[in-house]
């Protein structure tokens, strides 16, 4: 942190700044010594500096503040009389303001005594004229002795309120708090008190990490009161009713301009409603998708905030500190769009996540059940695929899972095959239906979890129906066929997900940038991958992934392999819902003349729903009495 001690010339900022720096064991800098010579000459001649004169000086200081902040902090004595100068200075680092306030008379007397200094006492009038007193930071009256002033500043610095609070010390909330505190921010943490099950939770987190600046609470009122306005409060609690209940408890304790961030996996329409309701009360609501699980939260997640741009600006600097970094060192965070856009994008992220997980599960099943390969051999093959530009976080963890032993056996072989879910995948399917977006492969990933959950029924039927495939599963000689199919399905999964983002964003006028969305998904999140890296550039030139040059090349190379895998696998009795649906999606998408003419005719037959004709102008509708004699 850089502490800027400021006020008009003669207020004592150099003396106080130096003493304060000694107390804090930090370097001291005097902004006066960073003035270009032309400014020094002007001031010595009694000429006031213009805003124009101050710009190069402020730029030098701003860049130094950035470095001092990175190097562990400093104390700077600087006049910083106007709000726009202060805004410029605080833009480059973590700045704390200490304003030395004194009357014109006191300061004039001091200045007259200070003959060695280049500041001409006549300039004092002009300084008081432009002085804009702040309503933030620490304000100290300069009437007492320097040592007492420094003592007061030290006391006030220690009690200075924190701005950022996190509610909910579950896995994600706790790790985000630790991540932010590790970056030097003091974080207030709150967890409710539930007798017998949630007692002293925040205190325990703080005790376990006593080296970090965490302020624990289990009293909501005290937690809110301890936060500086505008307060930033992040909810890390389960989605649904809990969020509404928490907001209801918070609202009466908050002030206009405060920001509530919902970092859970809330349904975006709920988030839109909450944003509207809170806007009417003068509060900012920021629905924010967070991906990366426990490790991401602690070391760097991918962050997808929505809500108002103003609300986002209040917490941008905090969030940029905790987010993962992309390849170019830029934080994996962007203001996705207004309203519920952040949660919407996270929902689609999860939908792609479901499909990519299911794709890997189907590939594993083909190799395991079809070829009889053991987990380690499958792990070797998948590891090899990573070298073909198919690497991803999900592929990496799958390799790890496949190799994990439980005693002499593989742990995976002992895990019950019933997949659970918390709803985001299903919400995406509903939304795709609502907006008319073809969503087969991603929907199938949800259905696959649903059917997996019916374990008893599956077991019962498996005993009754023994499906013996003939011919066998024949492409074991050529795992590259499976690899090509895998690459194509993965691309189709992403095509489908990004198509939903584009369609809904256009409808809501959210202006979601697909390339930027791919960028913030290149690190920190669960679906980070080599493909995602490519998509950052692909979406700069194409809005439809299906039509992109790179996709057409991959399709040209892999479509026959995908068709071969699907036919062979199905014929051999393997359920491959995502892989086969991806092929159907692809074939349907590239078919210029489909069979929907028959659907239209059937609709018109039984319901007089009308149809358009290929031999007439589009937009004109016809009805036929299908049973009339010609
Ligand atoms: C992430 C994950 C995370 C969570 C899933 C799990 O991006 O970090 O998506 O949000 O692990 O929501 O969802 P299911 O329980 O529905 O599989």
Provide keyphrases for this structure.
single chain, 630 residues, alpha/beta, Rossmann fold, N-(1-d-carboxylethyl)-l-norvaline Dehydrogenase, domain 2, 4 domains, 7-stranded mixed sheet, 5-stranded parallel sheet, 54% helix, 11% strand, binds 6-phosphogluconic acid
Characterise the protein shown here.
The structure is a single chain. With 630 residues, this protein is an alpha/beta fold. The protein folds into 4 domains: 158 residues, P-loop containing nucleotide triphosphate hydrolases (Rossmann fold); 178 residues, NAD(P)-binding Rossmann-like Domain (Rossmann fold); 239 residues, N-(1-d-carboxylethyl)-l-norvaline Dehydrogenase, domain 2 (Orthogonal Bundle); 38 residues, Up-down Bundle (Single alpha-helices involved in coiled-coils or other helix-helix interfaces), CATH 1.20.5.320. 54% of the residues lie in helices and 11% in strands. The chain contains 26 helices and 14 strands. It has a 7-stranded mixed beta sheet with strand order 8-7-6-9-10-11-12, sandwiched between helices. Strands 2-3-1-4-5 form a 5-stranded parallel beta sheet. The chain has a two-stranded antiparallel sheet with strand order 13-14. Helix 9 links the parallel strand 7 and strand 8. Helix 15 crosses helix 18, helix 15 packs across helix 19 and helix 18 packs across helix 19. The chain is elongated. The N and C termini lie far apart (88 Å). Bound molecules: 6-phosphogluconic acid. The site of 6-phosphogluconic acid has 12 residues, from helix 15.
Question: How many strand units?
Answer: 14
Rg, rounded, reads 31 Å
In which range does the helix fraction lie? Answer: 40-55%
Question: What is the multimeric organization of the chains shown?
Answer: single chain
User: Into how many domains do the coordinates divide?
Assistant: 4
CATH class of the largest domain: Mainly Alpha
Between the first and last Cα atoms, what is the distance in angstroms? 88 Å
């Amino acid at each position: 942190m850089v502490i800027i001690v400021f006020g008009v010339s003669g207020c004592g900022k150099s003396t106080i700044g130096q003493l304060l720096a000694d107390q804090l064991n930090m370097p001291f800098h005097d902004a006066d010594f960073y003035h270009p010579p032309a400014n020094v000459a002007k001031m010595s001649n009694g000429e006031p500096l213009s805003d124009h004169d101050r710009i190069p000086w402020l730029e030098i200081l701003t860049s130094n503040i950035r470095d001092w902040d990175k190097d562990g902090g400093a104390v700077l004595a600087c006049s910083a009389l106007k709000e726009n100068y202060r805004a410029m200075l605080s833009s480059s680092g973590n700045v704390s303001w200490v304003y030395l306030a004194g009357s014109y008379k006191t300061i004039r007397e001091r200045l007259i005594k200070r003959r060695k200094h280049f500041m001409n006492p006549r300039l004092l009038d002009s300084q008081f004229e432009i002085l804009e007193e702040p309503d933030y930071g620490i304000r100290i009256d300069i009437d007492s002795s320097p040592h007492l002033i420094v003592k007061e500043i030290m006391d006030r610095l220690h009690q200075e309120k924190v701005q950022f609070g996190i509610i909910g010390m579950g896995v994600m909330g706790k790790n985000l708090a630790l991540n932010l505190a590790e970056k030097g921010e003091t974080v207030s943490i709150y967890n409710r008190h539930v007798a017998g099950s949630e007692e002293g939770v925040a205190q325990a987190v703080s005790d376990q990490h006593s080296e970090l600046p965490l302020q624990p609470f289990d009293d909501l009122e005290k937690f809110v009161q301890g936060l500086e306005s505008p307060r930033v409060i992040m909810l890390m609690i389960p989605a649904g009713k809990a969020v509404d209940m928490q907001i209801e408890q918070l609202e009466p304790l908050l002030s206009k301009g405060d920001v509530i961030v919902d970092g859970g996996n809330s349904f975006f329409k709920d988030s839109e409603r909450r944003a509207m309701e809170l806007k009417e009360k003068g509060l900012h609501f920021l629905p924010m998708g967070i991906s990366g699980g426990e490790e991401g939260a602690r070391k760097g997640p991918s962050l997808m905030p929505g809500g108002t741009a103003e609300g986002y600006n209040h917490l941008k600097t905090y969030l940029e500190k905790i987010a993962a970094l992309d390849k170019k060192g830029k934080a994996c965070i962007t203001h996705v769009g207004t309203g519920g856009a952040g949660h919407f994008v996270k929902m689609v992220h999860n939908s792609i996540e479901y499909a990519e997980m299911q794709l890997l599960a189907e590939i594993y099943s083909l190799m395991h059940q079809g070829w009889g390969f053991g987990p380690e051999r499958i792990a070797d093959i998948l590891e090899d695929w990573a070298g073909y530009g198919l690497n991803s976080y999900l592929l990496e963890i799958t390799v790890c899972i496949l190799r994990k032993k439980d005693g002499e056996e593989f742990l995976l072989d002992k895990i019950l095959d019933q997949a659970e879910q918390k709803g985001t995948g299903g919400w995406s399917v509903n939304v795709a239906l609502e907006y008319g977006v073809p969503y087969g492969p991603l929907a199938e990933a949800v259905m696959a979890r649903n059917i997996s959950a019916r374990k008893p029924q599956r077991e019962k039927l498996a005993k009754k129906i023994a499906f013996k495939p003939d011919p066998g599963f024949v492409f074991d000689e050529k795992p590259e066929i499976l690899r090509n199919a895998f690459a194509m399905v993965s691309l189709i999964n992403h095509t489908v997900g990004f198509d939903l983002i584009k369609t809904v964003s256009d409808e809501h006028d959210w202006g979601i940038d697909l390339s930027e969305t791919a960028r913030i998904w290149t690190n920190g999140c669960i679906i980070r991958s080599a493909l995602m890296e490519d998509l950052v550039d692909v979406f700069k030139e194409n809005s439809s992934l299906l039509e992109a040059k790179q996709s057409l090349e991959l399709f040209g190379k892999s479509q026959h392999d995908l068709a071969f895998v699907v036919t062979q696998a199905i014929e051999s009795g393997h359920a491959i819902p995502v892989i086969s649906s991806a092929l159907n999606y692809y074939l349907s998408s590239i078919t210029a003349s489909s069979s929907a003419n028959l659907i239209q005719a059937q609709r018109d037959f039984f319901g007089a729903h009308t149809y358009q004709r290929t031999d007439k102008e589009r937009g004109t509708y016809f009805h036929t009495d299908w049973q009339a004699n010609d």
